[in-house]
Structures
1.
Amino acid sequence: MNPNNDKHTSFGLVRDMLVVPQIIREFDADRMDETAAAIAKVGRLLMTGEGSSRLFPAKSVITTARRRGWPLSLHTDAGLQSQEYDLSDWAVFALSNSGRTAEVIQLFSKLADAGHQHRYSLTAFADSKLESLANQGYVLNCGEESAVAATKSVIEQALCYHALLEAACGQKQLASRLDRLADQVEEALTTSIPSEVVDRIANARIIYWSGRNDGVAEELTLKTNEITRKCADYLEGTYAVHGIEEVMTEDDVVIWIDPDPGSEEKFEQVLGQGVGLNIVAVASRETRFPTLQIPDAGDLAAFVQMAAGWNILVEVGLKLGVNLDKPERARKVGNEFTG
């Protein structure tokens, strides 16, 4: 996307995306240190929310924690399913931009009634219903979003979890890395995408996203529905070559986030040659497929990959002529608490 092109910046969604590098640079990595100390004592954290408030923020930090060997038990599930769990010896952190998401409010009400003392929240607005049910509530600094699809809030939510858990494990590094990460995200957002790649994706029957279970491809699947109005599906890991090829057609496309080098040949054989569909890669290296090459951010790569995915979706949405800000049916608050 081009920050100097009115065709792009006339949409609030694009403006929200383009401000993300500034949000990263100005992020306060120390604001949750008190809560981090409390979570460290508990040793277990459930991260909950619905939709975009859970997928990328929770799953990306769980992946980072496992790679870096952080000594905490971490889990994520949506608010409704989490109500079925015994959480008496877990800290629980709920994310909801509106602070009015029904499922997490129901969960926190149940925990509060049971005397649970480690309830934490992060919302986009102060004095929300969810915050009133938390032992400690925090408010995002990114401000209200201009479009239905959540973007800049998702990145700040993920930064909050990353800073929180680094602090809980005594391994604080994020603050010193923010400027470089902001530059890398900006590059991924503004890299020009070849018109033939945009056309290929825009003309697809179904847009499949493939990649690790770290929230990136799954969140971009949701954003595909909201931003481009195209049918999309998430294929975890190498799921794309384990049976679903039976119902794929040559009119489909697979966008593969950070392909595993050892799996590229199999994807080409099964999907490229077998099905006849197109594969597009997003990676920090060259691949055998048409590739949107992005900077290598190490264990923060998920943030850069997300920005690259947004870039693709904006270009596809513009190609299709849709209103990027206002889907016809999708709502800013999925299931709003009304009790």
2.
Amino acid sequence: MNKSQKHISFGAKSFATLALAGVAFVALTPAHADVKLPSTLTFTAYDTGTSGFNIGVGVGKALKDKYGSDVRVLPAGNDVARLAPLRAKRAVLSWMGTGVYFAQEGVFDFGAKEWGPQALQMTLSTIDCNGLSVGVAADAGVKEWKDFRGKRLGFVVGSPALNQNALAIIAYAGLTQKDVKVVEFASYGAMWKGVINNDADAAFGSTVTGPAKELETSPRGIVWPELPPGDKAAWERVKQVGAFFTPHKTTCGANIKASAPLQLATYPYPIATVYGTQPEAEVYALTKAMIETYPGYKDSAPGASGLDVKQQIRQWVIPFHPGAIKALKESGVWTAEDQAHNDVLIKRQGVLAAAWKAYEASNPSDDKAEHLKGWMAARKDALAKANMPNGFDH
């Protein structure tokens, strides 16, 4: 595990959402049986050219080379679009960002009547040399985050993860959405194009994402204002908006050199996500396959090397699937402390599921805004009764 990462404890329990049952895996009986995958697998990921998409393609090629499985990676511009195929059983895995956390919590777009808290769980995720922060056009004149007041910040419609993450970063300087000019775009890729085209001044993403590289080589250039960890009050503001962030020494990415690292932020990204109701044998086979093929994809895309099983962040805000835990145990990296943390997260998912069921049974308003307002109040009460942190009471 990356020593710079801090454990973030929340609570959660698996509940019956839609089972991911569209793909038939071969059951494995011996603990170390040969991995067998179906002939076709479908993943979802961020837009084409992003680090999440590129990593998904790299993993897919390695699975094809070793197991003969054809892997399709479907690009999607926002969190809802990435999870919809997974929920509808048209995909076996989704390469997610912090949208997986918002979906678990049933907040933002996932507080809508057609969604609610989702029992999502992890398999593997990436922590590497890259950071996750807001890249700013160099010609915008922003050296520190306090200089960003009044600047244009890119948002993506239907992607609360990207938008909330951007707000968490600027909170380092005490800035809020009211202190900037929000410019909305249809997708992640369109947002970064907007910065290149001078329709916005900044966008959230990985330092190694393809669009950030494009901005670097454009006439505008790119800078990443730092978030020094020594300012504890500033970092507390960041965590109040994005509890999943932690300081990170970043040594790779657009306009970043290993010889001159930047103090930025990170969290596991991308996160290979499944539903908790997916059978253990299915998730075990897929996780085991990703572990075994690591040498074949670790150099396939920037950030892919962070999928190393020995670097996994095992105590974050989303629980691991039992099938993934089995594979991690076989790799010698799962501890009793990890299991205890995971159990709390599973319990949290149960509390949220029960709260949602009770709320929907109360005949809430069909008005989208009123429905969300009522749900957030019910959610807050349920978590308080369970003595669990809200995470969205700022």
3.
Amino acid sequence: MCKSKFWLAFSSIEELGSGFVQRLFKHFGCIENAWTIAPSELVRVEGVTKKQVEYFLEKRKNINPDECFEYIEKKGIKYLTLEDEDYPRMLKEIHNPPTVLFIKGNLEDCNLGRTLAVVGSRRASCVAREVLNKILLEFEGTDLCVVSGLAAGIDTIAHKSALEAGLKTIGVIASGFEYCYPAANKKLYKDITDGNGAIVSEYWPTFEPLSFRFPQRNRIVSGLSYGTLIAEAAIKSGAMITANLTLEQNRELMCIPGAVSNPNTEGIYKLLKDGASIVTCADDILNTLEWTVSKPKSVKTTNFELEPMEQKIFNAIEIEPKSFDEILDLTGIEFGDLMSILTMLELKGIIKQIEGEKYASCVKI
């Protein structure tokens, strides 16, 4: 506690920045000294501005480190500081790592030696969602850990696919734990922290999810990971920011190709032209990262033959998901019969409904 309370006290000061804290820590060699040092000594720290010092001194007057420690303990929030042995090694290696990493769930259960960041568009296409789900399900039975930002779109699919595959997953949020953003992911937050991984943040529990915090959050997503997989990305997007951070951190960058006509693939093809690795299956990721893991389970195959009308439906959706009306037009099957057969195929695990009220194949015949 004696050291931790000062790290926590620093982190409770909004807009102070981890860089400022690290400069003080490096200069004085002790986090307690960095907190308690006289104002005259603070201005001598290299890289620290007068404005930053004045701001810190003003805030310090009203902060009690013991109360900060008691507050976090009472909230039941775990944390790691830069001085802790268990602080993630990959994250510590990046420029400006978080001075404190707040944790809910079980980070210790995640294999930090097999971390893959997955990011992409918040308005991802159905195809991108489906392909990403397929790739991550191929890792079922391995110890891979999926890291993402718990945002809408690709982030959500990444976490849900990891859970579906029985993988551990780490969600990095751009606010304190008193906020769930987006609100639609409240159940996903709970599913992750209930024994399936961890949610982490560098922000004090009361800090809001303000816009400038999302790019800051991205450096942690890529920083925790050996490589980053981009599913979809417009030229100007948070995913492209994460891609650039990945390269700055000297980590592997990978992309899932998509339709050239999709605006969300413009960033993907730029990254591929610039040298990012192309990914269409789990083995591509393993080869890029030079990982050897237990062989991913193959895609399920049926041990029975389809009836003629079932085969018609399967043929209609094998290449690309289709809506009910599209299947109706393509197969010529009567409305009532089609409803019944689709239900039976779902029960058999041959097809599934996906976002956009479409049906997709989930086996190879």
